[in-house]
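Hallway conversation turned thread

IA: we were arguing at lunch whether anyone had actually written out OmpR/PhoB-type domain-containing protein end to end. Turns out nobody had. So, for the record, here is the sequence (752 residues) and right after it the structure tokens. Reply here if something looks off.
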Amino acid sequence: MAEMRFHLLGPLRIWRGETEIKLGSEKQRAVLGMLLLKAGTPVRRQEIIDAVWGGDEPDSVINLVQTYVGRLRRGIDPDHVARSGSSWLAGLGSAYEVRLDRCEVDLIRFRATTAEARRAMSAGETLELLLRALRLWQGPCLSDLDHLLKGHPWVRAVDHERIGSLLEATKIALQLGRADEVTPHLYAVAAAEPLNEVVRSWLVLALAASGSQVEALAEYDSIRGRLLDELGIDPGPQLRAAHLQVLRQETAPAPLYEPPPPAETAPWPSLLPAGIADFTGRGELVDRLCGTLAGHGPGPVPVALITGQGGAGKTTLAVHVAHRLSDDFPDGRLYADLLGTGTRPADPGWVLTRFLRALGVPPPAIPQDPQEQVDLYRTRLTGRRVLVVLDDAGGRSQVEPLLPGSPTCAVIVTSRSRLSGFARTCSVDVGLMEPGEARSLLAAILGPGRLEAEPEAAAELVRLCDRLPLALRVAAARIVSRPHWTLGRFAERLGSGGLDELVLDDLDVRAGVAAGYRRIDGAAQRAFRLLGLLEVPSFAAWTAAAALETAVESAEELLDVLADARLLEAAGPDATGHNRYRFHRLVRLHARERAVAEEHAATVGAVLTRTLAALLALAEEAGDRLPSYGDGPVRGRAPRWPPPARVRERLLADPLSWFESERAGLVAAVLQASAAGLDELAWELARSIRAFAMLREDWSVLEQTHRAALAACRHAANSAGEAAMLHGLARLDRHRSVRGRPAGIGRTDSQP
């Protein structure tokens, strides 16, 4: 295969072998640029849309992205695009990934070389490697796409990597008397960052150290004038200090912070919150995390990532593990709540200042420049065994400045998001507790005697709390605070009061779900509200498309956003090969609260009717493809909402598999339609299941659905529906009798 090379450290350029590939469309180039910025990790289609179109996307934007991706595959690697899995650009559902085993990306080379520089054994070797990395740059990242991607966080982050490596190289070069080797790079970055005082201050020092004092003073005058003209401000303390040093003709760079004290005299901070005495379960996860973080050898800093939905116990687990590992990290345990799910996430600079103070740095010696803070922090941790716990991270940008550079340290990160890209990462996902673990947690708080006295009520509490640790803790704490309450009484209150019963002081299950809801955009919020109206145990994208009245592809995008925000859980593929999603019970309750508060009653009714009508249309068509059991084509007045033909054919290619996938959902749909007074939909849905249930001899499904629909029809005086359900129950009774089962189970008092 011809080797493909991508350059994004400057204008975007592409080579296949020795041939440079030209791409005409700017938006196509921007799509490629976004993929290359995250080469080696999946990029969601919605992230590309948000970056390239900036909220002004056309209705056909999904098709446009798919078209651009197809053209990129064909135009850059035409020989291998047709072979599944062999393309340099892999498709992963609604995401795409540049495969690093199929191509070379200069950003990856840059990062590998800078990482090698930081592992070098001498200052001279480090400088050589940093200069080699800096020579890969031909301008700002994706500089030819500034008008489309300028200011995007991913682009800025890469440019900041360049600046950080350049400043690191400059400090070493000045100490070694080799300032002239970094001056061209400083000039290049200063031209791209004309108001960056940190870069300009080091440029002034480097020019003076190279013997060009006049140029150094002219550079200071230039930036001083520009700051005054464009921003109306004077140079900051770092730039003024560099100017003063040049005036004094000091050849060595002045330290921007005091040197750290020897490791043996530095304080041993312990910022961990207190552990929870009644910590229960999670034994396998605790052992795995401790094994990853304790006793590690040379190499990158080990990072343990703990993810899960709000209230799953991520913080409790992280703090418990950190206390367990205290002996392995005798030089300190640092902890910070990054507030990533709140409205105002913590600034990494503020956290660094707090950490530096805990590590013994006097406040006046803490530098103002963020990169200098990172340098000092990592210097203080060099050679020390310190565990850093970063709780509730909103994204990698919050975490990266807080990572130590010394492999003697270790890091635990908790987040609702599945962060990626950290070397030596152990990632664990904290799900709901097992039923036995949930019961043990209640027993640890309430005492085993109370559970033994009311075992059925205890089981109901576990179910109503959805085995969510936070909900179980709040429920148990509320019962403890009311000694006269029985478990049964609180279970009744919880069943009728919902999330209002799961609040105690600052412990609030609703608040945890609401934090995730606030962080997603308006379209995803609406999808969350409306999908929460459905009582099906799980659903595929086609169901969401019907509920939201949108294309299946758009529904998939929204479902992925909700899953990323931990407002939905991906339940894996069904028998037809389509991914399914489900709500946790307490999350669904909040979705319905938001629907009641933010949606018109007519919208709520239309969503339910439309979704059930789509399910009915598919069930009837699937039933027509199964063997007949003598039922004639009986149709009522219920509406049908058939999905597009291409969707129907894909879903119903194997009608039996479709019924297997939707069995529980069909039962739930009949029950919900019956409870909502949609009698026509209730009985027609129940009848549409009959062929499948007869084939599988699934008498319980027929019994449950037909009796629920029968009750709804009688309540609505729907004689046609009542007759259809009675006929079905009678046939069920005969089939049971023929197969040697007791007769009469399907009869009702009104049967002839």
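OS: looked through it. The radius of gyration is 32 Å.
IA: good, adding that to the notes. Residues 81-85, 254-266, 742-752 have pLDDT under 50 and may be disordered.
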